[in-house]
Design a protein that fits this description.
By secondary structure, the chain is an all-alpha fold. It has one domain (about 5-140): VKOR domain (de novo design (two linked rop proteins), Up-down Bundle). About 70% of the residues lie in helices and about 5% in strands. The chain contains five helices and two strands, in the order H-H-E-E-H-H-H. Strands 1-2 form a two-stranded antiparallel sheet. Strand 1 (about 55) and strand 2 (about 60) form a beta hairpin.
């Protein structure tokens, strides 16, 4: 049995794990209100993480991000192990990464145009989500091999 994963799956695991760790870190900053956890002199993580845009109906965006990255990891795992669910997990992941990428672009716009502050951890999350979206698009557009009889 060959356990070697295709490069797209490996990159998905890496990008989603980075996004998950980053989101957890932002959640820790949010709940501990510890300004020292922000990288001093690099951007303005504190202002962004404490702005009105850092929550959605009272839920920190970092928690929503962590949930999204964890779900993407689980979908990737299930899709790589169960071929009958592979297409379904790809489509769900596509929808999640599309929504996540659009929301990341919106939040980045808010950082630049409204808050005039950039959070390097938020940028990292946006890069992770956009990477996941690009990989998901490439996987969906890749011609599928015909199953062998």
């Amino acid at each position: 049995m060959n356990n070697k994963q295709p490069p797209a799956v490996v990159i998905t695991y890496i990008a989603a794990t980075i996004g998950l760790a980053d989101s957890i870190y932002l959640t820790i900053i949010k709940f501990t209100e510890n300004k020292n956890l922000c990288i001093q002199g690099v951007g303005d993580c504190w202002s962004v993480n404490n702005s009105v845009y850092s929550e959605f109906y009272g839920i920190p965006i970092s928690i929503l991000g962590a949930a999204a990255y964890l779900t993407i990891l689980l979908l990737t795992f299930v899709g790589s192990r169960n071929h009958s669910l592979k297409e379904t997990t790809h489509l769900i992941t596509f929808g999640m990464t599309l929504a996540g990428s659009l929301y990341s672009v919106y939040l980045t716009y808010l950082e630049v145009a409204v808050l005039k502050a950039i959070c390097p951890f938020c940028v990292l999350s946006a890069i992770a989500m956009l990477t996941l979206f690009a990989i998901t698009c490439a996987r969906l557009l890749k011609p599928q091999a015909e199953p062998k009889p």
